[in-house]
Amino acid sequence: MGLFGKLKDGLSKTRNAISQQVDNLFKAFVKVDEELFEELEEALIMADVGALTSSYITETLRDRVKTKRIEDGNEVKEELKLIISEILNQQDTKVKLNTKPSVMLVIGVNGVGKTTTIGKLASKYKSEGKKVLLAAADTFRAAAIDQLDIWATRSGCDIIKHEEGADPAAVVFDAARAAKSRNADLLICDTAGRLHNKKNLMQELNKISRVLERELPGADREVVLVLDASTGQNALSQAKLFAEAADITAIALTKLDGTAKGGVVIAISKEQSIPVKFVGVGEGLEDLQEFDPEQFANALFD
Amino acid sequence: MAFESLGDKLQGVFKKLKGKGVVRENDIKEAMREVKLALLEADVNFKVVKAFIASVSEKANGQDVLESLTPAQQIIKIVNDELVALMGSDDNKLKYSKHPPSVYMMCGLQGAGKTTTCAKLALHLRKTQGKRPLLVACDVYRPAAVKQLQVLGKQLDIAVFDMGTQANPVDIAVAAVEHAKKHGNDPVIIDTAGRLHIDEVLMNELSEIKAKADPDEVLLVVDSMTGQDAVNVAESFNEQLDIDGVILTKLDGDTRGGAALSIKFVTGKSIKFAAMGEKLSDIEPFYPDRMASRILGMGDILTLIDKAQEAFDDKQAEELERKIRKQEFDLNDFLNQFQQIKKMGPLNQLVKMLPGVDTKALENVDIDESRFSKIEAIIQSMTNAERTKPDIINASRRVRIANGSGTKVQDVNLLLKQFSEMKKMMKQFQDPKKMKQMARMMKRK
Description:
The structure holds two protein chains of two kinds. By secondary structure, chain A is α/β, with parallel strands linked by helices. Helix content of chain A is 53%, strand content 14%. Chain A has an eight-stranded mixed sheet, with helices on both faces. In chain A, strand 5 (221-228), helix 9 (234-245) and strand 6 form a beta-alpha-beta unit. The model of chain A has no long low-confidence stretch (mean pLDDT 88). Helices cover 57% and strands 8% of the residues of chain B. In chain B, 39% of the residues are buried. Chain B is an alpha/beta fold. The interface between A and B is large, with 47 and 45 residues.
């Protein structure tokens, strides 16, 4: 299965969930009327797009349908796809890791799949011929270091680790030094899961950011916020508060292989201008894809 | 604040009516629209919201609301009561086996917090009921999951049963129950691997564990930040395993937690525990009333109580109780109280947690915390003798204290007067019955 096939496969549940409802809709409503818009809005809300963003999207759709004089249900659907991909396309979704070394800092709340995502990222860049170094800066959760260690072995990457309970900024400091001396192409830093409303933990994240800034000045840096696709509107708050602690450049949307739709990224993209750059579609090493807004929007409604 | 509270919005809806004096059905409809939006923002499932609104609308159209002088409050009350009624249940206690050990089996999606919750529950049951729990590591899939449970067990000094990562989870569970019988462990808490509810192979594995290990309760662990998908997850797990209850996790975040309502609504199974926080002691029975005000984004008087509990430690509270009873409460204690309140956080934030307070109006009100510092300064300018026996503070002492604290004699007078009034009030608490009640309230957790 090719890359696109895999993405589509992973997204198919997402797509089915939304598009089944949408398709049912279009079968049921040939006419473009008020009820159609209401049902469409409902479908968006059920996909976790959020009440406000859903209403914004349907309002936009309403205007477009009016000005473009769209009368066919299928064309309305195309227009809806277009609006969503426009929102997702407002920012550059390309990953920028050109310097040597460059850095990825992976952050997020507890249980979204940070460590697993790092395992996949490491494997992905390793297979592209990069020398990847991992930093086990989740020194808080029991056995988190062991978990990353196993991923390091699986992907064949080096890992820098301290004892459980060590200062995460110190781990990152050592890792940054090691990245330089070992001539690594990419340093990927794991961090402890933390709830975004815990001030001191967010300050710790800020400290890690500063260490990277100081030790690897000028290095390309992707700060990846990992979001669980099953998370609802709280993801907005996560994006907002994590952005205050670290300059987020990317979102990785994980667990899209379930029935959750992850629609909240549309709201995040619209309100906070943070692009989605990766999607996780399974538990295998290769089940991480770079995000493509058009494909995403298409896959949602194809 | 990210969300305007439902209270504010409803006030807005009904403010427009003030001139009219009468609430009409249409107005209720508009109010219900706000309720609906609030529930959706809280991630309550859309279908559940629809059903909920339908049932609440009926009640809201009753005479009480239409004739009420405070329709907004009436509606909030109806909505809140309905939420509490829906989320609460009588069987929120864990079932115990007549033939120990009791066996509890955890299940849920990846990342819901099962492993941590297992450890928290074990600690909770040991603490509250003097049990000797056994933790069972049946997550053989996620890297280092077994190790994680072992580390947690070691931290808590609770036994952990594992057979490595090569054994079959079903065999592990069965062997663990045998092990517990032999070694006198009770209850047995089985950690299972996180899995997608649409993963047939792994879901069947859970059914098999349930069949063979015969747990007294199957508990679904759900992340309280879950969105619309919560109903699908809960329904699937319930269909496959006929779960007995739900544990909500990560409630220390700022999620509104609408998933709680959705899950209860579609499965009918009670929510038994709420887990919050990084500490392993951070688990407690589920309180539907707290959850209701959280979902509605309303002032949270209970959080305020919690904050107070955090700031005042038990020992200090007891000492204070003793002093008040013996009428030994002096200015040192008074100062202490002030400092403790300050520890709870900025005053204007605390005030916002009080229900019924108009948060918008408060935005421009700056609570004068400098008055606190003034009081602190005055007391700190007193000698110890003066603090313990304020009666000795005569005119010349007052002048000295005022000079020392950079305040005026009037300020010192005012403080002394307030203090003596406070003491008078405390005298009224001399009734030992009342004291006990208060002490109990302070300790409730």
